[in-house]
Specification:
CATH superfamily of the largest domain: Phosphorylase Kinase, domain 1
Largest sheet: 5 strands, antiparallel
Number of domains: 2
Distance between the termini: 53 Å
Shape: globular
CATH architecture of the largest domain: 2-Layer Sandwich
CATH class of the largest domain: Alpha Beta
Strand content: 15-25%
Bound molecules: adenosine-5'-triphosphate, magnesium ion
CATH topology of the largest domain: Phosphorylase Kinase, domain 1
Strand order of the largest sheet: 1-2-3-5-4
Length: 228
């Protein structure tokens, strides 16, 4: 990052996050911060420049509600050994999103490739595509079927997204890209079916408004495959 960039972002990043950014630039994950994409409640997302093109960094705020994060992650067998202190919870949360994305990508889910996670900073692939919220599909049926196929792949990766809506799906030239995997759960999580049903409910509501006639239970059955 150049000196000017440092000054421009001085007030945005805390000391430790700034050190993290310097570390990641030193490791070659990106060259500089281009600018903010989204300022969220728990995290801020920035576009960064890499020699191969744009990337995205998602920075979890150290002021995030870590108690809520802790309670949410505790029943996930992957994080059984997690400590409850503020920073370790927030770093685990960021690591969780990284691992979820990696698992999804390994099964061919159309989602950002995660490059690295360092403390509260996740570096991932950038998609030059609007949110579904801002760009409705031209052919809802076709887009919906593609989404079902993404959710089936995600299920085969042993994950449920749990925050599916037009806010967390990009419309990449009429192909869905799933984003925001921090809440995604392992299939071993208690009552995980309930979370999948909620995801399906959100999709069915959205697509039925666009003229489809989807039945929630039936659509749920296309994704959920009972064990044995
Ligand atoms: N890989 C990406 N490529 C392009 N834009 C992205 C990417 N990831 C995130 N964005 C943009 O940034 C916004 C916020 O990202 P995201 O949904 O992951 O975070 P959030 O909703 O603030 O999450 P959280 O609930 O974890 O705080 C998205 O709505 C999208 O516009
Ligand atoms: Mg989001």
């Amino acid at each position: 990052m150049s000196k000017n960039q440092f000054i421009a972002h001085e007030n945005v990043f805390d000391e430790s996050t700034l050190r993290g950014i310097f570390y990641l630039t030193g490791q070659g994950y990106f060259e500089e911060v281009e600018g903010p994409i989204s300022i969220g409640k728990e995290s801020n997302v920035f576009a960064v420049l890499h020699k191969d093109g744009k990337r995205v960094i998602k920075i979890y705020r150290t002021s995030a509600n870590f108690k809520k994060m802790y309670e949410y992650m505790k029943p996930d067998p992957r994080f059984a050994a997690m400590q409850g202190t503020k920073l370790s919870v927030i770093y685990t949360w960021a690591k969780k999103e990284y691992r979820n994305l990696l698992r999804a990508r390994e099964k061919g889910v159309h989602a950002p490739m995660p490059f690295v996670v360092h403390k509260n900073i996740l570096v991932m692939e950038y998609f030059d595509a609007p949110l579904l919220l801002h760009k409705a599909p031209k052919d809802p049926k076709k887009f919906y079927e593609r989404l079902i196929s993404e959710l089936q792949k995600l299920f085969s990766a042993g994950l449920v997204h749990t925050d599916i809506s037009e806010y967390n799906i990009l419309n990449d030239k009429e192909k869905p890209v799933l984003i925001d995997f921090s809440h995604a759960l392992d299939l071993r999580y208690p009552n995980v079916q309930h979370y999948l049903l909620r995801d399906v409910h959100n999709l069915v509501m959205y697509f039925n408004k666009l003229g489809l006639k989807l039945d929630e239970q039936k659509e749920f059955g296309r994704i959920w495959i009972p064990k044995n």
